[in-house]
Task: inverse folding
């Protein structure tokens, strides 16, 4: 059951109250691939990198079942670079540097070998490019999950609404949900967004967990209470990778299984933030994931028989 | 199984983005009593009111099984009055008026008829008065739950630490837990607080739910996603009333039952915020509560069999 992932592969330099990272590998598609590769193979990657992107990183992804036929390597330009500084609460950050570099020329082309994929993860990207990928697929995937951000709500709202009509699941954070709908109440915001196209909406609240909305139903997944969050960078993409990775593995896109998939996503995100970049995601085993899933069961499991 | 409640009975005037209330009945002990009276009788109330406190409100409480022998009525002074304005997020508020009035003279006396109570809820109050109540009880209650606030951490920290050594469960919000421990991580803050006396710690996070810590165990209860929060005033006290009310009803103070009790508290709080003051708490039925408990089950219930 192939999973097609579209997004950035890049370099990040991160400052947190706990320290400052080197220039390390990041990018939405990178995090999605590392998280999802624990559940599904092959992963078909569509992205763009520069002449500076490390070969060993590409090989590390390939060894996890990530096919790179769709990753364009630009010989005479550097990779996308982002640098940011997180505040103490780790939910807010200041962007210090954004060098688009090769990303400015990104025009995703779906390789012939990627046709027929059944699960599509559209990482945060120019809405018009997300639409282009959907249109290049001759067979519509069984499930299309889309991430986006406030920047596109300000600079490409019409295109964003256009893509929204084509996807099944939208992933946004709480402030983005409010901005997209002009509603402060997340329940009201969710109802509005579910009229824009997606049948499922996931609102990410960082350390405060995530909400899944579908019709009149709602499901809440907490974030695992952690002693320290070292680096939230990529946690949302890692969440998305765990979510769609579980769905692709189980081939079950029912609301019930999406609940489980959100817990899987939350578990993967809880690993991601334990170290800078993708480091922790490279280390974890199936047993680590199983143990953390059990921790989530214990975290929310209660008995109402006594009430 | 009697429940002894100590705290304020007062008047509030509340401004929210949704409107401004009249001068309405409030106070920590009032909210606790209304919430707990759905689960346990009698409730033994210790508080102080002025000559302006409405008789019909006292009768309403009595009709719900609340014994008022411990409520001192001061003939020549008005009741405690608080006025505040909530910000849009409903988690932050500005205090506009605080008239202590009779509360300045409050010296809680435990009536002989209240001796032998098995559950004690110490509402937010001067720590020295909370201690006085514990010391007046000839038989130590089976469970002592204590609420407090940042004000006492700044003005009576030594007394607060003194009382902490005498209680079983401490209720604070996230910012208070951080202030009490100088730890930003709630997990680290919890570990520190559990060395100060309480064997159980509940950290309330408002719309983001609540955490229960005990030894190395942790449980998370979400807040019910609501279309609108009209008035958060008393939500924490209502949560406390539902929590200890369920424990007193079931006579089971195990960690497992405390998980259920926190969901009961969250359910009661979700009613409280739907209208100004205690209005909604007066209306709800056993069936309303059962249906909301089921909503919490649906909100967090997932299946990991597929993972």
Result:
């Amino acid at each position: 059951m192939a999973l097609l992932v579209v997004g950035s592969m890049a370099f990040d330099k991160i400052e947190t109250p706990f320290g400052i990272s080197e220039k390390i590998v990041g990018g939405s598609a990178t995090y999605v691939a590392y998280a999802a590769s624990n559940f599904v193979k092959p992963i078909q990657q569509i992205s763009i990198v520069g002449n500076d992107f490390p070969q060993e990183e590409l090989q590390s992804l390939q060894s996890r079942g990530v096919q790179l036929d769709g990753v364009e390597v630009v010989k005479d330009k550097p990779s996308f670079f982002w640098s940011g500084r997180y505040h103490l609460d780790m939910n807010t950050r200041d962007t210090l540097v954004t060098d688009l570099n090769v990303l400015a020329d990104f025009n995703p082309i779906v390789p012939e070998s990627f046709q027929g994929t059944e699960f599509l993860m559209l990482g945060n990207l120019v809405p018009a490019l997300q639409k282009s990928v959907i249109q290049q697929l001759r067979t519509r995937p069984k499930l299309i999950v889309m991430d986006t951000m406030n920047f596109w709500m300000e600079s490409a709202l019409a295109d964003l609404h256009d893509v929204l009509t084509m996807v099944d699941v939208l992933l946004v954070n709480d402030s983005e949900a409010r901005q997209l709908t002009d509603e402060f109440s997340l329940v009201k915001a969710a109802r509005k967004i579910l009229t824009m196209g997606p049948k499922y909406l996931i609102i990410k609240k960082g350390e405060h967990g995530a909400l899944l909305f579908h019709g009149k139903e709602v499901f809440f997944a907490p974030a695992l209470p952690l002693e320290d969050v070292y680096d939230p960078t990529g946690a949302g993409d890692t969440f998305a990778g765990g979510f769609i990775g579980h769905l692709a593995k189980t081939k079950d896109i029912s609301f019930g299984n999406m609940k489980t998939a959100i817990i899987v996503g939350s578990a993967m995100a809880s690993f991601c933030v334990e170290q800078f970049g993708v480091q922790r995601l490279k280390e974890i085993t199936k047993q680590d994931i199983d143990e953390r899933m059990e921790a989530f069961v214990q975290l929310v499991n209660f008995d109402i028989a006594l009430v």
Summary: The interface with chain B takes residues 88-89, 184-188, 205, 208-209, 211, 217-222, 225-228, 246, 250, 252, 256-257, 259-260, 262-264, 290, 293-294, 296-304, 306-307 of chain A (CB under 8 Å). Residues 43 and 66 of chain A are 5 Å apart (CA to CA).
